[in-house]
Amino acid sequence: MFQYIVRRLLLSIPVLIGISLFSFFLVYLSGDPTDVIMPIDATEEARQAFRHKHGLDKPLWVQYYRFCANIVRGDFGTSLRFDQPAGHLVAERLAATAQLALSSLALAVLLGVPAGVIAAYRPRGALDGIVRSFSLIGQAVPNFYLGLLLIIVFSQGLRLFPSGGIGSWKNLVLPAFSLGAYMMALLARVTRSTMLDILRHDYIRTARAMGLHELSVVIIHAVRNALIPVVTVIALMAGFLMGGVVVIETVFSWPGIGRLAVQSIYARDFPVVQAIVFLSATVFVLINLIVDILYGVLDPRISYK
Amino acid sequence: MVTENRQENSELLKIRGLKTYFAASGGIARAVDDVSLTLRMGETLGVVGESGCGKSITALSIMRLIPQPPGRIVGGEIHLTGRGDLLSLPESDMRDIRGNEISMIFQEPMTSLNPVFQVGKQIAGPIMHHKKVSRKEAWERSVEMLAKVGIPSPEKRVKEYPHQMSGGMRQRVMIAMALSCNPKLMLADEPTTALDVTIQAQILALMNRLKEEFATSILLITHDLGVIAKMARNVCVMYAGSIVESTDVRSLFANPLHPYTRGLLGSIPRMSRAGGKKARLSTIKGIVPNLTHLPEGCRFSNRCMEVLDLCRKQQPPLATVSTGTGGDHLVRCWLAPAPSKELCDGGTSHSEK
Amino acid sequence: MQKMRNENFKKRLRAFSQKILSSKLAILSALLIFIALVCALFPGWLAPKDPYEQDLSRRLKPPVGFEGSAPGYYLGTDQLGRDILSRIILGARISLLISGVAVAVAASLGVAAGLLAGYYGRKTDLLIMRLIDIQLAFPVILMALAIVAAVGPSLFNLIVVMGISGWPRFARIVRASVLSVKEEGYVDAAHSIGASTYRVMIHHILLNCLSPLIVFATFELARMILLEATLSFLGLGVQPPTPTWGGMINEGKQYIYMSWAVSVIPGVVIALIILSFNMLGDELRDALDPHTERQVMRGFPTT
User: Fold this and answer.
1) What was the pLDDT predicted at B347?
2) CA distance B317 to B261
3) Could you tell me if residue B21 is inside a domain?
4) Residue B350: is its pLDDT beyond 60?
5) d(Cα A168, Cα A189) in Å, to the nearest integer?
6) Contacts of C71 (CB under 8 A, 6+ apart)
7) Under CATH, which number does the domain C18-297 receive?
8) Contact state of B103 with A210 under an 8 Å Cβ cutoff
9) Given this model, what pLDDT does residue C162 score?
C-alpha cells in the first residue's frame, strides 16, 4: 500500500514540472510582456526599468529557474494590478471558492448518487425514467445559463434568494446549485449504469441465492462495488469544477479565485494568472492522487496484492 | 447437526410439469418444458445433459431466481416437504427458504464471491440473517464452517478476500456458505467444471462427506457422466428442455435405453476400442434444436440414428419401463421396450440401494 | 478475402442501420441537428430579418405572443433592436462551424498521437501519455482562458485552443484500440505476410476503433459547443457584432430585468443542440455495439 502511494507520488513529479513550464511560458505567448503591459508611448527607459523590476532582462532559463525557486517559497511575484503579492491575492479568495466548490460537489454527490441507485433498482420504471430525463437535461444546459435562469426565477421573480455576492447561506444556494447541476446529472447517469452492470454479476446472484432481501443486495453488496468507478468520475469532476467556478463566480459576483482569474486575464495581470494556473493544476494533481489512494482503500484487490 | 427429522428416503422435493420459458429475439425459448422429478432425503440426484438443455434453469426455477424480464415460470408445481408448492409462496417466504432450507452453489467460483467483502463476512451474512444470531456468533460459525470444508488455518483465512484464494478454495468457501444454515437440500450447478481435475476429485469427496454430516440432499447438475458415476444414486438425463431418461445410476450405465443416453455414453473416449487404434471417436451427429423452434415430434428426432416416422410427428411421453433390476426406469422414446406402466410424466419410487 | 470483408461490412452496416433507424430519439436528434446545419449553411435563406440591423426604437421587445411585441420579430429584439431569431440562425453558423472544425482538429491530432503511442510503444508511448496527463491536469476553461487572453480572441485562435483541448481523449481511445489489436495478433499476422507498416496501421487498427471514435466524436461535438458558448459568454469568443449563442446570453445578461428573451432564448437553443448531440451519441453507441442485444436477451442463463 505504501509502495503504491510512493509510486503515484513519483509519477506526479513530471506532471508538475510540465505544469510549471506551461504556467511560465504562458506569459510569453503574446509576445514580450513589457509591450503588452506598458502603454505604447512609454519611453525606452521606462521599459527598461519595468524589465529590470520584473526580472525580464535575464535569459529565459534563468527566469524559469527563478520562477520555480520562487514558487517553492510561495512567491508568485507582484500583481501588476494591485501591487500586492500575487500569492496573497489568491490565498485571500481561496476560502470563498472552496466553499462554493465543496458545496456544489456535496450537492451533486448527495443527490446524484442515490438517484442513480434508485433508478437502477427498478430499471424501466417511472423513477428510472425521471432520473434519466433529468440526467439528460442536466448535462445539456450550460451552467452559466442555468445560473441566469435561476436568478430570473428565484431572485427576480420569487425574491427568495439574492442574485449575487457572499454572505449568508442564502447567497450560496443558487451558485452551488448552478455549479452542481451538471455534476449531479453526470453522477446519476454513471451511478445508474454502473449499478445496472454490477447487478448482472455472479456474486449478486449468490447474494440473492442466500436469501437476502433485494434491498440489502442492492445497497450492501452492489453499491459497495459501484463506489469504485463512481469515485473515478468524482475525480474528473475536480477538473470540471475548476472551470465551472470561473463562470459561476462571474455570474453571481462571487468573490473567489475564478472571478479573480477572469479579471486578471482581462487586465493582463500575468503574475496572478500564473499563480492561479499553477495552483489549480497542482490541486488537480493532488486530488487525483487522493482519489488513487482512495481506490486502494475501496478495492481490496489493489491494496492486498 | 440435524435438528429435525430427516427421514431417509422419504420424499423431499417433487417437481411436476415445470415449465420455464424465456422471451428471446427469435420467439419464445422453452428452456424447461414439462419437467418432473423426485428427490428423496439423503439422496444425491444427478441431472445430466449438455449445455443449453435446461438443467441450470431447472435449478434456478426451484430457487425462483429466474430473471423476470426475459424469463418466467409459466407452469408446474415444485413441492418441498414442509413448505408445499414453492411456486405459490410469497416472495418473503422464498427468501426465508433460500440459503436456509435450500441453498445453491454455482459453477464459477472465481466470480461468485463478492470481491470487496471478506470471506468471513460473506459466510456470516446469511447466518445472521436466517438464524438471527449476533455477529460474533456468526463469525465463529464461519470459522467452524471453513474448518469443516477443509480450509487450513480458518481463523486467518476468514479475514481474507476472495482474490487471495485459489479457485478450489473459493469453491470450498461457497460450499461453506451453502451449508452454514444446515439446509435440507443443496443444488450444485456444475460445481467442479471450472476446476482442475485433481481439485475436482477433492471437492466431490468433500461434498459427499458433508452430505452425510449435515444430512443434506444434493441435486447435482453436470454434463460430466464421470461425476455422476461417482456421486449420484439416481440420475435424470435432460435434452432440449425435457427429461429423456431417468433411473438409478447403475442401470443407466449398464442399460441405457434412450438413443441420446447411448450416444453420450458411447462418446466417452476409451483407451481400447473395437476397431483398433484408428477407430474414430463416436459422436452424435447434428446439433441441438433451437429452443424457440422446437420440432413437433421428439426433440431428438433430427439426430437419432433409429428415428421412425412416428418420432417426427409425436413427442413420446416419459414412460416407466420395468427393467428387471427392481428399480424404475423411465424413458421418453417410442422405441423403448414395452412399458409395463404408462404414466404421464410420472416419477415414482426408486429402489433402495 | 476482400469479398468476404465487403460482405461482412455490408451485413454490419445493415444491422446498424436497422437499429439506429428504429430509435425515435436518434431520428429526433438527427432532425434537430440537421435543422441547425441548414441554419448554419444557409442563414440568408432562413433568417427573416437582417441580423445586424439595429433600430433603437425597437429595442428589448418580447417574443410574439407576449404583450408589447413587435410584429415580424418572432422571438423579440435585443438591446440594439436586432431580431433575435435572425441572430440565432446566423449564430448557428459560428457555433457549429467552430465546434465542428475544433473536433476535426482534435480528432486528427489525437488519432495521430494515439497511433504513434500505441504502435511504437516504449518511449514514444510514455512521452505521449505524460503529455496527455499534463494537459488533462489543466481545467479546460482555465487553459482556454489563459491562451485566448494571451493571444487575443479571434476565430482562428478559438478553434486552435479548442482543438488542442480535445486531442488527449481521442488519443487515449485510439491508443487503447491499437494496444488491444496488437495483442490480438492482427498486426503481426499482417506483417508476416508482407504488408507494409502503413497498410497495417490504417486498415486493421483504424477500422477497429472507428465505432468508438464516431460515438466519441459526437459527444465531443456537444462538449465543444458547450465550451464555445462558455468562452463566448465570458467575452473571449468571437467578438460582437457577430452573433454567437453564448455571446448573446452575455450581452443580454445586463438586461434580464427588462427583457428575459435576449438571454433566455439562445440558452434554450444551446441546450437543445447539446441535448441532441448527446442523445444521438447514446443511440449511436447502442446501435454500433454488437454486445448490446438490449431487447430481451439480457441475463439469459445458458443451461
Assistant:
1) 42
2) 16
3) no
4) no
5) 32
6) C64
7) 1.10.3720.10
8) yes
9) 85
pLDDT (tens digit per residue) in B250-273 = 888 888 888 888 888 877 766 655
CA distances from A13 to A18, A157, C82, C96, C133 (A): 9, 51, 53, 39, 11
State the cell numbers at B42: 439423503
Place of cell 445410476: B249
Does B120 map to a domain?
yes
- In the three-class reduction of DSSP (H, G, I as helix; E, B as strand; rest coil), residue C7 is classed as helix
CATH of A1-305, one of 1.20.210.10, 1.10.3720.10, 1.10.260.40, 3.40.309.10: 1.10.3720.10
Which residues have a Cβ under 8 Å from the Cβ of A250 and sit 6 or more positions away?
Answer: A144, A258, A259, A262, C234
**Closest to A255 in 3D by CA, of A141, A185, A175:** A175
Reported as a pLDDT band with limits 50, 70 and 90, residue B351 is very low
pLDDT at C167 over 60: yes
What's CA A127's distance to the chain center, in Å? 30
Looking at per-residue pLDDT, the higher value among C246 and C66 belongs to: C246
Secondary structure (DSSP) of B249-280: HHHHHH---SHHHHHHHHTS--SS-TTGGGPP
Residue B111 domain boundaries: 102-182
Q: Is residue B139 part of a domain?
A: yes
- Which of B55, B70, B71 has the CB atom closest to C303's CB atom? B55
Average pLDDT over residues B182-197: 90
Q: What is the dihedral of CA C72, C74, C78, C82, to 10 degrees?
A: -40
Cross-chain Cβ contact A225/B130 below 8 Å: no
Rounded mean pLDDT of A34-41? Answer: 68
Task: Give Cα A207 distance to the centre of its chain.
Answer: 38
pLDDT digits (tens, 9 = 90+) for C272-299: 999 999 999 888 888 776 554 443 334 4
Kindly report, residue by residue over A42-94, the tens digit of the pLDDT: 778 877 877 777 667 777 777 788 778 877 777 777 777 777 888 888 888 88
Question: Cβ(B45)–Cβ(B15) under 8 Å?
Answer: no
Tell me the shortest Cα–Cα distance from C237 to chain A, in angstroms: 13
Residue C64 β-bridge partners? C66
Per CB-CB distance under 8 Å, the chain A contacts of B98 are 208-211
Q: Are B124 and A236 in contact (CB under 8 A)?
A: no
Distance between CA A149 and CA B309 in Å, rounded? 77
Q: Is B34 helix (H, G, I), strand (E, B) or coil?
A: strand
- Closest CB to B52: pick one of C295, C299, C303: C303
Closest by CA to C114, choosing from C170, C76, C73, is: C170
Q: Which of B97, B106, B164 sits opposite A202 (nearest CB)?
A: B106
- In chain B, pLDDT over 90 holds for what percent of residues? 42
B-facing residues of A in 172-231 (CB < 8 A) are 201-203, 205-213, 221, 224-225
- The whole-number average pLDDT for the span B182-210 is 90
How much is the average pLDDT of A237-256? Answer: 88
Please give the span between the terminal C-alpha atoms of chain B, in angstroms, as a whole number. Answer: 24
Strand-strand pairing, B185-189 and B11-24: unpaired
Position B155 in a domain: yes
State mean pLDDT over C14-29.
81
To the nearest whole percent, how much of chain C has pLDDT over 90?
12
Distances (CA, A) of B192 to B107, B151, B155: 7, 17, 25
Domain count, chain B: 1
Identify the DSSP state of A28.
G
Q: Identify the helix (H) or strand (E) that includes residue A287.
A: helix A270-298
pTM above 0.95, yes or no: no
- Copy the grid coordinates of residue C90: 446566423
Contacts of C295 in chain B (CB under 8 A): 25
Please count the other Cβ atoms lying within 10 Å of the Cβ belonging to residue C68: 9
Q: Does an H or E element contain B20, and which?
A: strand B11-24
